[in-house]
């Protein structure tokens, strides 16, 4: 298997999505002084993780491109939970890719405590061999959800998926605290945004 050639369209997909999603942020920041997007990251799944996940989910090689849906992944991080749903609605209206599945792990949080909104999309990439539809995953979450998820992810990696019960219980409490933080921030969202607008124009006039 020539992994390097295989992954080129996935890299292109991630790069194009990052440019487009950062474009939304830029336009909002310029025109409205507030963006529902705080930052955007993206990555192509490392080959070792691709192989590990295929083994774990029993996905045969010929089903990799359809059944392993996060080889190309981008993440949108927002300040507020409302922003997530604003972004989801904007992405549903876009003409440059098709949403093939939505997974709402905010309404239905995972057993681990994980919360996030996932969109599985089909994204068209032009290659030298012609047009190719790439399946990609867009994860949309708040800063608090992201903080929790990156810490839990590190612990999962450290303990190879077998986090000791004491730590996983703490993680569940931390997930609950992150949820409360999002709730409290939502209640003072207007105040925070007003403060950010004032700060933004102060910086511009300096
Ligand atoms: P990585 O290292 O993030 O690239 P599954 O893997 O079975 O849970 P599936 O079917 O691939 O799920 O789809 P899902 O759950 O929509 O998306 C999987 C991705 O979501 C994971 O990718 C994580 O990025 C994130 N995710 C899902 N559940 C959790 C969780 O409990 N904790 C954290 N920290 N992240 C989660 P990978 O494959 O783990 O890889």
From TrEMBL:
Domain of life: Bacteria
GO MF terms held by the record: ATP binding; GTP binding; GTP diphosphokinase activity; kinase activity
Any one GO BP annotation for this protein: guanosine tetraphosphate biosynthetic process
Ranges in a coiled coil: 171-205
Cell cycle keyword on record: no
Residue stretches making up the RelA/SpoT domain: 42-163
Keyword Coiled coil: yes
E.C. number(s) listed in UniProt: 2.7.6.5
Pathway this chain belongs to: Purine metabolism; ppGpp biosynthesis; ppGpp from GTP: step 1/2
Keywords assigned: ATP-binding, Coiled coil, GTP-binding, Kinase, Nucleotide-binding, Transferase
Family the entry assigns: Belongs to the RelA/SpoT family.
Quaternary assembly: Homotetramer.
Record PANTHER family: GTP PYROPHOSPHOKINASE YJBM
Protein name: GTP diphosphokinase
Organism listed in the record: Gracilibacillus halotolerans
């Amino acid at each position: 298997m020539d992994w390097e050639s295989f992954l080129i369209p996935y890299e292109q997909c991630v790069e194009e999505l990052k440019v487009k999603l950062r474009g939304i942020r830029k336009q909002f920041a310029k025109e409205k002084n507030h963006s529902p997007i705080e930052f955007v990251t993206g990555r192509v799944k490392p080959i070792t993780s691709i192989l590990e996940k295929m083994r774990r989910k029993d996905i045969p090689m010929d089903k990799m491109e359809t059944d392993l849906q996060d080889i190309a992944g981008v993440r949108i991080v927002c300040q507020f939970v409302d922003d997530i749903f604003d972004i989801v609605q904007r992405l549903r209206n876009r003409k440059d890719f098709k949403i093939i599945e939505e997974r709402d792990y905010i309404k239905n949080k995972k057993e681990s405590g994980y919360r996030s909104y996932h969109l599985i999309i089909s994204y068209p990439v032009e290659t030298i061999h012609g047009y190719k539809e790439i399946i990609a995953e867009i994860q949309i979450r708040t800063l608090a959800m992201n903080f929790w998820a990156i810490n839990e992810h590190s612990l999962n990696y450290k303990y190879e998926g077998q986090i000791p019960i004491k730590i996983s219980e703490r993680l569940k409490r931390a997930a609950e605290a992150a949820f409360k933080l999002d709730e409290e921030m939502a209640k003072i969202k207007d105040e925070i945004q007003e403060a950010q607008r004032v700060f933004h124009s102060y910086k511009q006039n300096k």
